[in-house]
Design goal:
By secondary structure, the chain is of the alpha+beta class. The chain is 25% helix and 46% strand. The protein has five helices and eleven strands; from the N terminus they run αβββββββββββαααα.
Length: 166
């Protein structure tokens, strides 16, 4: 399939990288691109069920994913197959780059989860972030990542992501 036909159908391939390697790549449907924020929708791209203890991602789940070209995070609304919102999984990333039909984001290890009811907000993978050495190799990026996580946590503990995602 040519890139032109993929663009005509609104198909975008999301490529999540980590430490210079492709972590996962999956097809999604482009919902919106306003020049700053790119919104895509995709089914759960993992193999089988991923049980985090506080949420399960499983076949049939649908992710509406919001990526910014000028922010250091992505916010993913997670819905079950029946349409019920499970919550929001947030990745701390470098700003997204959309080239043709490929959306590339670099995962910086830090994550945040907010449950649908807002009662469970948790920072994730801070140990992995510390072990990554980013604070040593790229202190500006590390500071931007921590600031982004703080910003998302404040939103999650406040009114949620409604204003951010509207």
């Amino acid at each position: 399939m040519s890139a032109k036909s993929a663009e005509a159908r609104g198909q975008v391939e999301v490529v999540l990288t980590k430490a210079g390697r492709t972590k996962i790549r999956y097809k999604s449907m482009l919902m919106e691109d306003n020049g700053t924020r790119v919104t895509v929708r995709a089914p759960w791209a993992g193999a089988g069920v991923r049980d985090f203890g506080f949420v399960r991602f499983e076949p049939g789940d649908v992710f509406t994913e919001y990526y910014w070209r000028d922010r250091w995070y992505a916010v993913k609304e997670v819905r079950a197959a029946d349409g019920a919102v499970k919550g929001w999984y947030c990745d701390i990333t470098r700003p997204a780059v959309l080239t043709g039909t490929e959306l590339v984001v670099e995962d910086l290890d830090l994550d945040l989860w907010r449950s649908a009811d807002g009662h469970d907000v948790r920072r994730l993978d801070e140990d992995e972030f510390a072990e990554s050495g980013l604070a040593r190799t790229d202190p500006e990026a590390a500071a931007a990542a921590v600031s982004a996580l703080d910003e998302l946590e404040a939103l999650a503990r406040g009114d949620g992501f409604g204003a951010l995602l509207s």
